[in-house]
Specification:
With about 140 residues, the protein is an all-beta fold. The chain has strands spanning about 5-10, 20-30, 35, 45-50, 55-60, 70-75, 80-85, 90-95, 100-105, 110-120, 130-140. Strand 1 and strand 2 form a beta hairpin.
Length: about 140
């Protein structure tokens, strides 16, 4: 249950000096909390012809028992990677649900590029998750 609790642990032994020992215990139960998961560890768009676009979706999952507040969504590195138009950068993911976001890759020149999709949230043990992105600008044939 949510809230602070305390108690003690009694240890009985055959120790002649301290046959009984008491250890104080305390903790704080949290009400439902969000637990972020992005199933893709990295994503490579492969070859995309310069001047065209490739798109990929990423699921932002909440494996927790309470709402997950996504507080930031950014794409850094090469400017060829962008969030799809209209993508909110903060939103709530209900417990046991997911939100799909799209990231576009539009190469401006030939050659390999790299970027990173970063998601920040109120997840207690994983407040920031990053997904490395890669792509290769291919010449038109």
């Amino acid at each position: 249950a949510a809230g602070a609790v305390s108690g003690s642990l009694a240890i009985a032994s055959d120790d002649p000096v301290t046959p009984n020992l008491s250890v104080s215990l305390s903790g704080n139960g949290l009400a439902g909390v969000g637990d972020i998961n992005i199933p893709v560890a990295s994503y490579d768009y492969g070859d995309v012809v310069v001047g065209t676009s490739g798109s990929a979706y990423f699921a932002i999952q909440n494996l927790g028992t309470g709402d997950l507040q996504v507080t930031g969504l950014t794409v850094t590195g090469s400017g060829d990677f962008t969030l799809a138009a209209g993508t909110p950068t903060s939103f709530v993911v209900a417990a046991g649900r997911q939100v799909i976001i799209w990231v576009n890759y539009t190469p401006s020149a030939t050659g390999p590029v790299a970027g990173t999709l970063s998601v920040t949230s109120d997840d207690i043990d994983e407040p920031s998750v990053s997904v490395p992105l890669a792509g290769n600008g291919a010449p038109a044939v």
